[in-house]
Fold this sequence. Notes:
- By secondary structure, the protein is mainly α.
- It has a single domain (about 5-60, about 80-140), classed as Four Helix Bundle (Hemerythrin (Met), subunit A).
- The chain contains 5 helices and no strands.
- It has helices spanning about 5-30, 30-55, 75-105, 105-110, 115-140.
- Helix 3 (about 75-105) packs antiparallel against helix 5 (about 115-140).
- It is elongated, with a radius of gyration of 17 Å.
- The two termini are about 20 Å apart.
- The structure holds fe (ii) ion (FE2) (2 copies).
- The site of one fe (ii) ion has 6 residues, from helix 1, helix 2 and helix 5.
- One fe (ii) ion (FE2) binds next to helix 2, helix 3 and helix 5.
Amino acid sequence: MTDRKPPLTASLEADHRELDELLGRFLAAADALDARRAIEEFDERLRTHMLLEEERLYSAQPARKLLPAEVESEHERLERGLLLEHVQIREISGMMRRLLEEKNDLPSARALWSNLARRWDAHTTREERELFPIVNRRIGES
Ligand SMILES: [Fe+2]
Ligand SMILES: [Fe+2]
């Protein structure tokens, strides 16, 4: 193979697919215990994945995020949007996890699933189509 992808974005993409599967496992869970195990694993791996991205992939500094829109570059705007999605997705995942761990409340956790899945899907699609190619070009140039 000559067109092999750089390892960082390739492994992040593989993470996305594994996390997709865990979301599917939550939905297919036979009972609250199964669902709890699936969302616990999803939540743990999601946090590790996002932390790695925030440390290795995203260049925006926290202070830069407060800049007004007109002095923000396209790339900064993209990163700001994606980082905000990280916060929102972690929040919903954590909420689902707490509902099962603290209240054993499967119906309420399930009610949040489509919101989580929709946001996760949109986020990973945007990273893979818009952010990863930029990162790969940057790696290729250095
Ligand atoms: Fe991300
Ligand atoms: Fe990601």
